[in-house]
Predict the structure.
Amino acid sequence: MSIWWSLHLRREAASVPLARRLLLGAMETAGVDPDVSYDLSLALSEACANAVEHGGDASTTDYRVTAFIDGDTCRIEVTDSGPGFPGGRASSPRTIRPGCPTPQPTRPRHRQPAPCEAAAEHGRGLFLIEELTDRVRYRNPARGGAIVSFDKILKWREDALLPVV
């Protein structure tokens, strides 16, 4: 069995906890392990916060969140109307503090953030999404905007309603 839902949300801070709570409710009802649900909800919060902050100008008032549970995988996409990622992908979208080395465009999974990254006030959202999920993709659609999509392999509680068979 599979389920999916899609939301059109206003680009305002109050939409972030709304999206997170809807995801957590769906995960709990389906029977997803709470630790996996928490990781996904934190990744979703970061992606939504980025869409709210960077997802467009005064003329764009919304963004979209779509979540799919199919078998043992959950895929979440957050789509906005902002300027998109530079060069097609934001490989290091964090604030660089004076004296800190320039981040490398590719990073090994599960590395500890450099001291300059950890001390940065902004720019850790995509890093957190990459660390909390199993696969992340960044795209700039032809019509403009940005899409962040990420997958996580699900673990199920024993009393799950949608266990993988």
